[in-house]
Amino acid sequence: MNRKLLPLLLLAIAALFQSCEGPKGDPGPKGDPGDSYVAQTFDITNVNFTSANEWGYVLNFDQEDIEVFPSDAVLVYVQWNVVGGLKAYRPLAYTAFGNNGLIVTYNFDRTDKDMEIFVDANVQRSQLATDWTNGFEFRVVVVPGEFLQRANAEVDLNNYEAVVKAFNIDESKVKKISAQ
Q1: Disulfide check for 180: which of 46, 77, 161, 164 has CB 3.0–4.6 Å away?
Q2: Contact 92, 108 (CB under 8 A)
Q3: Per-residue CA distances from 81 to 15, 70, 85, 87 (Å)
């Protein structure tokens, strides 16, 4: 009798697992954006390096509503020139060479609370022409650590265009912060 019931039992189990058709349910709630929001990007414009600001510009993240975690990477680029109507960025630390052996370095440091962009030179900074100290624009990209770990081997962080592509930066949505 067991041999006769076994095929019927298997047929009953198979019938239970048949898919059912019916009307679609309501859509679920919208989820988190996931990888589509990868990096915060902002410009610091009108930066002047003077003896009054000790040749540096300090940006407090909280005051500008910018969230930076210890594991995040803060990438800073100086807009060095404009080529064909497009801004050309160079990564910091950046060293420029002038006439008569002049060496000027633009660099930055950061904590979880703030960052400072500063200028140094192989001469007294007060002797630098304003071309070297006034009217600078910096592009800052804050990349969450987990995204950087995944992409680091594949992305040249010194190449601003590669960073834009890798971290889905929409340049039309870059926040502007004036240093003045």
Answers
A1: 46
A2: yes
A3: 71, 32, 10, 6
